[in-house]
Amino acid sequence: MKVMILAAGFGTRLFPLTIDRTKPAIPFLGKPLIRHVVEYVAGFGFRDIVINLHHQPESITRALGDGSDLGVRIHYTLEEPHILGTAGALDNARHLLGDETFVVVNGKIITKIDIRKAIETHRQSGAIATMVLKHNVKRERFTEVYVENGFLKGFGGFARPLTIEEVKDTTRDLSAPLMFTGIQILEPRVFDYIPRGKYSDIVPTFYNPALKNGEKIAVHITDELWYELSTIQRYLDVSLELMDGANIQAGKNCVISGMAFVKDTIMWDNVTVGEGAHLYRTVIADNVVIPPGEHFENAAVVRADMVRRCEQVPEKAPAGYIQGENYVVPLIDYV
Q1: Exposure class string for 132-143: b at 16+ Cβ within 10 A, else e
Q2: What are the Cα distances from residue 273, in Å, to 231, 259, 302, 335?
Q3: Phi and psi at residue 309, to the nearest 5°
């Protein structure tokens, strides 16, 4: 059985951290996020992996090569000149996925979800597809998924936090809504729904029409560890949570002045922090120099020249400003 990892995205909400790399290539706990994902699926015995590429494709191939050092065989598909969407990516790889059941995993997640159990659910259901879901306990802005008797019923809007009045109302059902984890098991027949050579996303292209046609779509519900890293705020929060109590995650060739204060901070490679600088809850990208006495808190910092050279700032990118030789983005959980 093959696994396809989706890794072509622009990482708009992670901008400017994704100027020179796609979002699954950002460093996470000492190595590119995509290596964590490949190690995760390899841990279940998957050896044939397909990865789609579009934005900054070399950032993925440089991080993984052919996969031999990870004990896997990696096949790449390139989407050009335009990105193809989550269903179009499958179409572009259908010659590699073959005519047997396959697994799709989002390339921007950290998880310990047991894929074997999800595959068992899928096989027992006889469904055309199985979505792996979990409860959105924090009620973050993920689409609500509706289920009934172990099968998908449909999709709602974004989950929202409960109001004080709703919490006080003891007659209300306050159970957490379900959300999609980005892990799915699919039968080759899904390609009957996916057009060839066009941009298309998986929910409107496959899931909604399949439900309308009476197809069985199973769900596997789990509450095992799972994080999604599509915003700078989530990236920082999850990094700090998984750092085993450490205050700093530093890459190669980082220099911190003895008089600087640095706490709850992620530093990529070749970062220099000057005398008396103060960093708290920050993400500092490659080759950034923090001048002496500079103070950053709840922010991401990249070199300003990278943003100046960027041909187009993504429409949904979080707002930032230039300060000296750096470009600073205040941390807000953009959706």
Answers
A1: bbbebeebbebe
A2: 24, 10, 13, 31
A3: -85, -10
Amino acid letter at 16? Answer: P
The 10 Å CB-count burial string (b at 16+, else e) for 263-285 is ebbbbbeebbbbeebbbebbbbb
H or E stretch including 305? helix 304-309
Tell whether omega for the bond before 81 is within 30 degrees of 0, i.e. cis: yes
Q: Taking the complete model, does pTM exceed 0.85, yes or no?
A: yes
Model pLDDT for residues 23-64, shown as the tens digit of each residue: 999 999 999 999 999 999 999 999 999 999 999 999 999 999
Q: In 3-state terms, what secondary structure has residue 68?
A: helix
10 close to 57: Cβ distance less than 8 angstroms:
no
The CATH architecture assigned to 246-330 reads 3 Solenoid (2.160)
Q: Which of 216, 205, 203, 42 is CA-nearest to residue 125? A: 216
The answer to whether the CB of 200 falls within 8 A of the CB of 92 is: no
The pLDDT tens digits of the residues spanning 135-167 come to 998 888 899 999 999 999 999 998 887 666 655
Determine the length of the chain: 335
Token duo for residue 43: 């841990």
Query: Tokens 């920050």 map to which residue?
Result: 282
SS3 at position 104 = strand
CATH of 2-228, one of 3.30.450.20, 3.90.550.10, 1.20.1260.10, 1.10.10.10: 3.90.550.10
Residues of the chain with CATH 2.160.10: 246-330
Q: What are phi and psi of 328, to 5 degrees?
A: -115, 130
